[in-house]
Amino acid sequence: MTRRRVPNPLALAVLGCLTERPMHPYEISQTLRARGKEGSIKLNYGSLYSVVDSLAKHGLIEVKETVREGRRPERTIYAITGAGVEEYEDWLAELISTPTREYTSLEAGLSLIAGLPPDEAARLLEVRFSRLQIELRAVEGSNEVAREMHLPEIFIVESVFRADMLRAEADFVRRLAADIRSGALAGTTIWRRLYELRDEGLSMEEIFADPVTHLGEEGRILASGAPGGSGG
After folding, report:
1. How many whole angstroms from its chain centre is CA 103?
2. How far is CA 136 from CA 68, 75, 130, 155, in A?
3. Fewest Cβ atoms closer than 10 Å to its Cβ: which of 10, 114, 117, 127?
4. Do 81 and 61 meet the contact criterion of CB atoms below 8 Å apart?
């Protein structure tokens, strides 16, 4: 991926607003919130001003004018520059066209899931499933309201994507929890036996020092160190 001059995704959203017309930061914030973009891009007022300053410093936007309305504080209105338009279009094209490797918190947890007893891991996956279902219903409800308002799909396409991702994740964790409980997940037998031995008083260090003795031939895979990890 190209290294961006202002890499915060919020910068892309600011540039997008300014391609429509010059705006002051508060108006940009309100526009993004009104369009529900905070569901896809982390948005807070403090970071917005920092991003605007960085964009101006790099010549991607510029001050158009400073205005005052009544007793309100002065507001600086920014316009996008030619370099800003080029950056916006190139960045957006790259995001849409180029897959990137994203390290999610769930993937990190799954990589170390053997650090929990099987039944506890399954229980926690079931908790996650329930929470995903709640979030999915909220997203689907919001999308349905948008459709009832005859809002064109293009304006909620990121929310439609989010719903599909939630469904996929929910289906995965539901199946994984079920496979752990039933033993259908390959390796669950040895995983479960590890924690039975620990409950009997053996430490993980002792088990891993001689896994074949404690776990039989199935334990041979642990002789050189198992993938993932087990807490002891």
Report:
1. 9
2. 43, 39, 10, 18
3. 127
4. yes
